[in-house]
Structures are given as C-alpha cells and as structure tokens.
Amino acid sequence: MDMNVISAIGAKLHPAVVHFPIGLLLAAALFDAGCLVFRRFLWLDRTAAALMTLGVIGLGAAYLAGERAAEAAAPVTGIAQGVLADHEDLALLSLIAWGGALTLRLFVSWLGRHDLEVQLGIFRLAALALVFGGVFLLVMTAFHGGQLVYEHGIGVNLS
Q: What is the pLDDT of residues 78-89, one digit of tens each?
C-alpha cells in the first residue's frame, strides 16, 4: 500500500481512536485510587487492571494513528510546528509511562491474585505514582492536540 494512503487513513483514524484510551485510562486511575480507600473490594483492583490494559492498547493505536496523521498533515510551520513536536513527544512519554504503570499494575494484580484484600505494597505505590504521572502526561498531550486543532486548524478540512 502507498505510504500516502496509509498516512491519509491514519489522519482519519487518529481523532476517532484517541478519545477511547483517554476515557479508559482516566477511569482506570479512578479505580486504582479507589483501591486505596476500599481495600476489601477486590473487584476494584481487577477492574482497574482491565481498564488500564484496554487503555494502553488503545493508546498505542492512537499513537500509531497520530504518527500517520502527522505525516499526512499539510506542511506545518511556525508555532504549530513546535506544538506538533511537543504533542508527539508527550504522546510517546504518555505511552511509556502508561506502559510502565500497566506492567507494574499487572504484576501487583498477579501477586495479589489469592488475597481477599488489596495490599498496599511498594509495587502498588510505584504503579500508582506512574498512573498519576501518566494522567498528567495524558492531559498535557490532549491539551497540545486540542491546540493543534482549535488554534492552528491542523486536521480540519473546511472544504
């Protein structure tokens, strides 16, 4: 398949795909924080892990579609070029942070698979720190993406 066709498909997919992982990962963060308060509800732990898994998969898809969308965008110059570069960098950092959080989160869930109460060990606290860092990175990535669309008109087809 021609790279221009692949880039055009990515440009169409990115806005459609990007919103699902944002919602899934923010919900996962809330469920994960709920595990601190409601330690006896094991379903919170399992739900947080499942939401995070789906969210990270979706984040990877959104990142790949975004890479193709950036290639398909008309030549971006000036301030928009800097915003696009920041958006791409933050998206990669978000993917790395959430991937690390997911790895720790699944490890924590696996360690606690026989416990009737969610334990607060060093791995859970490290995963939670990565989750909250991931939330910050996700919000900043979305902010820059919004700037690209609403302030610089990137990806907006007015014809």
A: 888 899 999 999
**CA distance readout (Å), 5 to 10, 17, 25, 64, 131:** 9, 18, 30, 15, 36
Domain ranges, residue 65 = 3-150
Domain count, the chain: 1
Residue 75 domain-assigned (yes or no): yes
Sign of CA dihedral 34, 36, 40, 42: positive
Structural domain contains residue 80: yes
**Residue 92 domain-assigned?**
yes
Given CA atoms 98, 101, 107, 110 in this order, what sign does their dihedral have? negative
Report H helices in 18-159. Answer: 19-37, 42-72, 79-111, 122-150
The one-letter code for the residue type at 118 is V
Could you report the per-residue pLDDT of 108-157, keeping only the tens digit for each?
878 776 665 566 678 778 888 999 999 999 999 999 999 998 998 877 76
pTM equals 0.86
